[in-house]
Design a protein that fits this description.
alpha/beta; homotrimer
Chain lengths: ~280, ~280, ~280
């Protein structure tokens, strides 16, 4: 599945100030071995460009925003990568860099965002979801895994301890209405309005002064970002959990039943991990 | 009233992984001299058991989840108890230990949760309320008391400064809808659905891996728990407030009007403390 | 406009325990050169009075709660003022003192609260808004300015990072329903109910014990107030942004189109700053 296309993540410049990043890795937008280097290149471009002010992340795949690791690929390759500029593993490295980038990042969520898809959305500055078609979750605990891309740190600060524990420890699907009530997303909008809303917001912010955006965001960061050590600790706990026999067994059982492949398991992932 | 039954807090093991704790001290589920040692024993069991993953706290008494101290009992006994393992007074000690326990705690709230009942719910990992029948509050400020079990620390982090100050300083009743809007509870559910929802969630989490639950919760704790010193400072302020003549006079007036006894004062406590 | 009246901010003592502060500087309740010293005097009175327990801030001007700086007045006068008792510039100084005052402050918001008006509301302990007639915003980023009175610090803690970034970086109007959903205000009430609700709450709290209120609020402050250094850093970034040519040009363009004067620009400020 990870071999079907060579470009899974596209960067489109709508204008020098307003970019779109599109996940296009059908059928699941699963996070494969090529996703990481392709996203890494884009994050670096976002950090270094002198003109871009707004980046919208979206999906071109029906039903999926961006999901978890491809458990059918070789996972050792991923965990053994050398650290990124922050000293963190490349995945959490990329996320904390995106949150600190002097650019406004917006996740436009239609379809399922779970695992790394949810973590990317949480690393963005804002999240807008399709009321009917968005599903957010951190499915990991249901597979015996500690989530690795920071949701313990980020969801706790976004929605408070009680709701964060529910989302993460239930490992269940969160639909648009509940995602809005909990603050998992800024707002859920009727699916027909979502694209227009996000586009208008992105164009609006792109008309503002870049240095003002940067200086203002920097101060929100001081007040709201978790320290990197919390993200690092979460990644380490994830890697440790992946190595445990009990977790390996759970993942094997899930794979035997259809996990990481197109079909009912991924379509109804929250239900699925509760049936083990 | 505190003499009517010898067991006020029951522990039931639905399975080795899923326990229920039931408050059964009619007619008010008032927090009497025996409540503390009985709960202490249960908290210690929860901490030390190697199999339990989920504990649900609930009430067997119509109209009351768990309420405040029994002001008709000898309060000196309570404030002079030796500290618990954390160095805090046994009541806040028990609460901070519950929040850190490697087990998922869920408050199923039907009826009034005020004072210690609200504080226990806030120390739990998650809270689900009956939309029609739950009433949450911290009535203390209306009686001249600083709340002693940590709501200043916990509500501020759960619902933000403005709503926390309103809940605590108004000392008023919060019904199901508002409790959900403010994030006082995770969700309020139709009363008919509440038991089934909580039971399904508890069973779901109980099917997951204990070490994964523990390691994941530990990282949410880092991001979301107040430091113990804030809870200790709140307890000290509570004890100091209780000793002041102005507070003693307020409490005496409330008792003369029916406080701490079954009847209208406790049924409509928010209204009642506003009439002094 | 700033010359039309000599008293723009009135203090009324409804009782020794319950005060009202009324902004009455028609037609816009714009923040002019006299507003700061008049408010300063009132904040000092609130801090030092031994009896007051509750202060409600409200407007006597149709359509406006309190808005931004009068950009047609001499701004140098404002930025060069000597620091207040906290060492901060008088405007942020006044705000952090209000948040720490041993008194409950409530913003009753009807009409537009933007810039300093939003910042004052955020420094209050609680905020209640007219569902139909309140508009909150931080318009500054749309004018090339970093907001100077602490919204990066305060909104991030109140509504979480994602919604705070949206409110501040979109610089757009937030109506009553959305303000409630986001936690910008405690609650939005039907306009016809707002005055009665706030008055009842203020009278209720005014009937409680002053020392209990103070000691309880102090502990919520520990859990919820940003450190002064974050507010100071925001003010410094605001002053720096104001001096930049790009910002001066933006503000000049806005003034040429009606900014800081009665009319459509101020009535629809969110729309207006998006048209540059």
């Amino acid at each position: 599945m990870s071999e079907t296309k060579s470009t899974e993540v596209y960067l489109t410049r709508r204008s020098p100030h307003y970019w779109r990043v599109t996940f296009d890795h059908p059928p699941l937008n699963i996070f494969g071995p090529k996703t990481l280097p392709q996203m890494s290149e884009i994050i670096t471009a976002i950090e270094n460009d002198e003109q871009v002010k707004v980046v919208v992340f979206e999906s071109a795949v029906e039903g999926f925003f961006l999901i978890h690791l491809d458990f059918l690929a070789k996972l050792d390759d991923l965990t053994r990568l050398p650290p990124g500029p922050t000293g963190l593993h490349p995945w959490p490295d990329m996320l904390v860099r995106l949150s600190r980038a002097p650019v406004v990042s917006i996740a436009l969520i239609r379809g399922r965002a779970t695992g790394m898809g949810s973590e990317l959305a949480l690393a963005c500055d804002m999240r807008f979801a399709s009321r009917e078609k968005a599903i957010l979750s951190q499915f990991e605990v249901g597979a015996g895994l500690v989530p690795g891309g920071g949701p313990m740190a980020r969801l706790s600060r976004l929605m408070g301890r009680g709701r964060a524990l529910e989302v993460i420890l239930s490992a269940d699907d969160v639909q648009g209405d509940l995602a809005e009530l909990y603050g998992y997303v800024n707002r859920s909008l009727p699916d027909a309005d979502l694209d227009g809303f996000v586009d208008a917001l992105a164009n609006r912010i792109a008309s503002f002064d870049k240095q003002t955006i940067r200086d203002t965001k920097r101060l929100v960061n001081v007040a709201s970002l978790p320290p990197d050590i919390e993200i690092e600790s979460g990644w380490d706990a994830c890697v440790a959990s992946m190595a445990r026999p009990a977790t390996q067994q759970r993942i094997k059982t899930l794979i035997d039943r259809g996990f990481s492949r197109s079909g009912d398991a991924e379509n109804r992932l929250g239900y699925f991990v509760g049936q083990t």
